[in-house]
Write a structure and sequence with these properties.
Blueprint lengths: L2 H4 L3 E4 L6 H10 L2 E4 L1 H18 L25 H12 L3 E4 L2 H15 L8 H13 L2 E2 L2 E3 L8 H11 L4 E3 L5 E3 H7 L11 H6 L3 H31 L9 H5 L4 H14 L3 H5 L12 H4 L1 H23 L7 E2 L5 E2 L7 H29 L22 H17 L21 H32 L7 H11 L12 H13 L1 H10 L4
Parallel strand pairs: 1-2
Antiparallel strand pairs: 3-5, 4-6, 6-7, 8-9
């Protein structure tokens, strides 16, 4: 669906948590945003608490003091609005390439969701500017580096707050780079003039980390089911057995994800003529290699890791992260809820799981290319081996990606560089964990797509033996974009076509038209 169409769809932000589907609609599809009446009321109530302290001679962090190690500085009443503007300008210190539009929209939406709880003390009119920017398709330019994942995603969120002030750079709905003031004026959005505490309330959140986690969880749900499709096709085309995927064998080790993956493999391989062809007394193979036999165990462990990550994401979506925070009973209290450790850990866990699933996929692909292990297929699946190289270098591409995925699996959350003159002496690096996970999910999709491309070629080479209906449907969907076996062709476009089909979910959809919904 186009952005133009989606902008007529509006997500209402209330005082409760957003659903992942709502975040995806705004982040990826350009849906508009509005605040509920309940949210406006909650923000107005929270604002009254802050305003009651605004003129207080007693210092209150974020309202009448400096920030971080400068919290010991008491700020006079007549300079407290300037304090908020200065905070945003100084913290908008990002560097490097621009962060993707969907990530920026997700983090703005999630910050807006926290504002809507009334726990930050930010005014309703300030929150409305964020809603208006999202609806108008105005995306602040946020840079790759600047967040340590503690005190929230400070620099990324500060760039968004800066744009809401009418300063800095944005991309408009068409993607053009424009000064923020110009883009706001063109869409009739009035820049916000920050009041007490509002600068801090706009930047002290885990919204960037959380937005990227929600997006990654959604993509991994598709990628892991697609990995099952690829594994099933490989088991079939390598003359493996599906006996090891039997439900009673899997139940001996009752991990939920393992059971789901094994059930998928059984459904995908149901009725395979290729597999039936070697269920005879002449077959002397006792058991398959681990990359075939243990696919449910590895894919299942990744599913269980994803399920845990989704639980953590759900809890964070229900959170109101700020410091200080306006409590339900009307106090303004300092806290440490901005620390990104819960998110950083699961972002790193997922990167580990992604690397391992991809590693197993690459090993299955490699088996197709080796005449000592591919059970009668030509070397490298080449049309005329020696003259043609077949899929030899496709496996090199996989190996290069898998090697990078292993590097990306090194945890970011175990690192910490103290900041703010040792006031912030332990940080989560959750933003970095999220950034590398995004790259890892892309890598997994590419590795699985190459396995699918190779396995489909092998299925064709097993003719006249007939594959299962589901794997045949996947092969046929690939064949609509990529020709079957033959002399060597320019391989890169064929790989990209397979990647596109895997990433979009079309491979999975082709299989599910036969099997019904997979787990």
């Amino acid at each position: 669906m186009s952005d133009a169409v989606m902008r007529h769809i509006t997500v209402e932000v209330g005082t409760g948590p957003l659903a992942p589907a709502e975040i995806l609609a705004v982040a990826r599809e350009g849906a508009g945003v509005r605040l509920s009446a309940e949210a406006e009321s909650a923000m107005a109530a929270g604002r009254k608490v802050v305003e009651a302290l605004a003129d207080d001679a007693e210092p209150h962090y974020g309202i009448s003091t400096g920030f971080g190690a400068l919290a010991v500085r008491h700020i006079p009443v007549d300079r407290r609005a300037q304090l908020q503007r200065s905070l945003v300008r100084s913290h908008a210190a990002g560097s490097g390439p621009e962060v993707e539009r969907e990530v920026v929209r997700a983090l703005m939406l999630l910050r807006l969701s926290t504002l809507a709880t009334g726990r930050t003390g930010v005014r309703p009119e300030t929150a409305r500017v964020y809603a208006a920017m999202l609806t108008a398709g105005i995306t602040p330019v946020v840079r790759e580096y600047g967040s340590l994942g503690c005190s929230g995603d400070l620099a990324p969120l500060a760039h968004c707050a800066l744009a809401a002030m009418g300063e800095g750079e944005v991309r408009d709905a068409s993607g053009a780079l424009r000064p923020a003031a110009e883009a706001l004026a063109a869409t009739g959005v009035e820049p916000v003039v920050l009041a007490e505490k509002e600068g801090l309330g706009l930047i002290n959140g885990t919204d960037g980390m959380l937005g990227m986690l929600v997006l990654a969880c959604h993509d991994l749900r598709t990628a892991l089911r697609t990995a099952d499709v690829a594994a099933a096709t490989s088991v079939e085309a390598l003359l493996g057995t599906d006996a090891v995927f039997a439900a009673d064998l899997q139940a001996l080790r009752p991990h939920p994800g393992q059971a789901e993956s094994a059930a998928n493999l059984r459904a995908l391989l149901d009725g395979s003529g290729i597999m039936a062809s070697h269920r005879t007394p002449d077959c002397t193979r006792v058991q398959d290699a681990y990359s075939l036999r243990c696919a449910p165990q590895v894919h299942g462990a990744a599913r269980d890791t994803l399920a845990h990550a989704e639980v953590v994401a759900g809890r964070e979506l229900a959170a109101a992260v700020d410091n200080p925070v306006v409590t339900v009973d009307g106090r303004v209290e300092s806290n440490g809820n901005f620390h990104g450790a819960p998110l950083g850990y699961v972002l790193d866990f997922l990167a580990i799981a992604v690397a391992d699933v991809a590693s197993m996929s690459e090993r299955r692909t490699d088996r197709f290319l080796d005449v000592a292990r591919n059970h009668g297929l030509p070397p490298f699946l080449a049309d005329d081996p020696g003259v043609d190289s077949g899929h030899m270098i496709a496996q090199y591409t996989q190996a290069g990606i898998v090697s990078e995925l292993k590097r990306l699996a090194v945890p970011a959350s175990v690192d910490s560089i103290p900041s703010s003159a040792m006031q912030e002496d332990h940080v989560s690096m959750g933003w970095a964990a999220a950034r590398k996970l995004r790259r890892a999910v892309d890598g997994l999709t590419r590795v699985v797509a190459i396995e699918l491309l190779t396995a489909a070629r092998a299925l064709d080479l097993r003719a006249p033996l007939a594959p299962a209906a589901a794997t045949a449907a996947v092969r046929d969907r690939l064949r609509a974009e990529v020709a079957g076996p033959g002399p060597d062709r320019w391989l890169a476009p064929e790989i990209e076509a397979a990647v596109g089909l895997a990433a979009s979910g079309e491979v999975l959809a082709a299989a599910e038209r036969v099997t019904g919904p997979l787990n």
